[in-house]
Write a structure and sequence with these properties.
alpha+beta, flat, single chain
Length: about 150
């Protein structure tokens, strides 16, 4: 019998968690993700995508999910791969914050008001808390990522 261990309004987060559980040896599946992808506003009524595990794996699955949401898994990744950390291209500080650009916010509001639909946004403007330098996510001091 499968038990829903978590519900996610973002189906991609549900699949990331499923993959993380499987990496830990916990069988997992995602249900309802196709409905959420096909009709985003309906996801609230459906309760989002359901991350499910067999009953005997409930407790270890909850521990992995708690570690994910607490940021411990990201800290492990950065400890093993320091280049994975978001750092300021000007001063190298890891004290950075992201924000969603105003244009994305306005577009989201307009689409929602006109079509009763929404879409996920992502932080793409970054600012260093140490030196105040601002940049777009993916840019380096030399320009966009991949250009030198």
């Amino acid at each position: 019998m499968l038990i829903t261990v978590r519900r996610c309004f973002d189906p991609w987060e549900a699949h990331i968690l499923r993959a993380r559980l499987e990496a830990e040896g916990i069988p997992a599946s995602v249900a309802g993700d196709q409905h959420v992808i096909a009709n985003w506003p309906l996801s609230v009524a459906l309760g989002g995508a359901a991350l499910q595990v067999p009953g005997g794996y409930l407790e270890p699955a909850q521990e992995v999910i708690a570690a994910y949401h607490a940021g411990r898994l990201e800290q492990d990744l950065i400890a093993e791969y320091p280049e994975a950390a978001d750092t300021c291209p000007a001063c190298g500080s890891a004290a950075v914050a992201g924000s969603v650009p105003t244009g994305q916010r306005v577009l989201l509001l307009a689409v929602f008001l006109l079509a009763s639909a929404s879409f996920p946004t992502r932080a793409s403007r970054m600012r260093c808390k140490e030196c105040g330098h601002g940049w777009r996510y993916g840019e380096t001091m030399d320009g966009p990522a991949g250009q030198a």
